[in-house]
Amino acid sequence: MDPKRFTRRLIALGAAMFLCALVFVITLFDAQIVNGDDYLDKSIRTNAKTETVKASRGILTDRNGKVLVSNRAVYTLNFDSSLVSSDELNDALLRVIELMNAQGVEIKDALPLARTSPYAYDTANGSAKTLVKYLVSLKWINEKNVGDDGLPTTLTGSALYLKLRSEYGIDETIPNSTVRTLIGLRYSLASAKMNGSTTFEFASDVDVSLISLIKDGNYAGVQVDTSSVRVYETDYAAHVLGYTGSIQDWDDYKDKDGYTLASTVGISGVESAFEEYLHGNAGKRLVTFDNDSGKITGELYTREPQPGGTVALTIDIDLQQVVEDTLASTIQGMIDKDSNERGGAAAVIQVGTGEVLAMASYPTYDLETFNQDYDELVKDERLPMFNRATQGVYAPGSTFKLCTSVAALEEGIITPSTIIEDKGIYTYYVDPQPMCWIWRQAHTTHGRINVSQAIVDSCNYFYYEVGRLTGIKKLDEYATAFGLGQSTGIEIGDVSGVLASPEWAEAHDREWTDGQTITAAIGQSYNLFTPLQLANYVATLVSGGEHYEAHLLKNVKSYDNSRVVDVYGKGPLNDLNISDSTMAAVTKGMHDLTYDSLRSAFSRCVVEAGAKTGSAQVGTDIANGTFVAYAPYDDPEIAIAIVVEKGGSGSLLANAAVDIINAWFTRDGTGATAAGEDALMR
User: Which of 37, 111, 376, 591 is deepest in the core (most CB within 10 A)?
Assistant: First the structure.
């Protein structure tokens, strides 16, 4: 390069650097000397904080991609106590309360007290555990002053109301109706601060006109945010889907990333079971605010929120609808005849996978109106929120005879051709000497029969003898292998039920005699199983003994369906390896039954099927009805269990089972809607 040219460039660079330095000095002089007071005042009045931004929950679909639960964008109102001085907090909240009342907007709080006098404890409003933690911190109670319900025993709700009113310095001139709301908000903010937050969400799903009033008015501390609420695209599967709500116990979430006290979480059903997939990843936002007015002056997303994943369930919503409607109409028909209230449940499982295709409990409830109906639902003696399919336990009655048959055949106690004569009254023991049902009803017997015919006739005498010969140890061994008397593994949780045994009887201070074995063999004694267990038991049986966990998860995809996050891939828990001869004998009996006493119902079935009825006494003249079935007979695809409380004979449920079978095998597989980006919300 030419030396002169290089020198000119060097001089130009030096001049530019000098000008930059000069500008910096002038700016610094202006900031510190000329306008120093103005800049200082602005810095004092303006502050900034980082906030967590909630992500929209993921979408729930059925096995065919039909959207079951989605989201709707809404505005929410939060109050941030850090934006208001403690001396001005009550006045700021009162202005908010006045506005909300004028606009007819409900104010939420986390205080577990009734909204009206005498202010009894009400945990539907908030967490008892959080309240106790707060009261202990104030030294108003100690941890020993807590009852079995988790609430204070030495401080009544009305007394707590008065103490909190005093603690928060609430003026005596304020009307009582307003005081309870103010106390609730003060408590919510205090409990939030105790858990490391200064913000509490007090209103959701508010309209734009209210937002305008907030932004234009003097409402220091109030923040407008966006969130989402659940939208239910189906009126069915309430017990499966479950519901969402506010965090009840912050200790369960405080160490998890992306949660705040205002987070919406799954409370029941798959909303709770698949919370990790549905919650999404929260974002981060830098907010600046004016210290004088408490108003937000600016915001900047430092990390965009990412919605939860799309969770595909194993259920078929069209089949679910048929199962619920059929169960409801069957039970309502019984109620219409005798005016006795009943409940019931049904489950359909795919053979060879454990996938739950449908699961219904009656009576049920509406997820769309759940919050409004909650108080009535919890008081309803019919227990509509109780999932009888997974939580209700019932004696299986004669449906257990299938297990007894398999155990006796596989252990060589009998063969498919073994003949036992029904003599009406079983006299092997001095006591008891139970009767076969046909002897009790008509003073006749089933005569000489083999195991297949015993299934058709549901001959108690046959199974008394077979049960005695097999013994309770072997009966329980096979029942356990079928999954009876233990959890099915369903993700939404279930109860184990009871498998009758000497060990269980001893542990529960119950009597066990030799006579208990023969009653256990026909599905009585202490045996209590869930309808879901019964469905999975039949699915295991007709598969040849492959026992799978019952499950609702099919797969999980990212919110935009661009990648697969998880796929259910568990194999069988165990395999009974039931012999061909045993399978042939047992399934023949189940198949023949559909051409015998169940002929009128199964004559309209679109495929060949197998079934077994059951009736379990729960009172002198009262029996629960149980029914299990599978189809097709020669290539099992689905297994069904139906239980109706006070349903009488299980044969009364045959038409319901046929409706379910027909619905599955006549489906056309069309109309499925895949959940894509257009169905999702950020």
Answer: 111
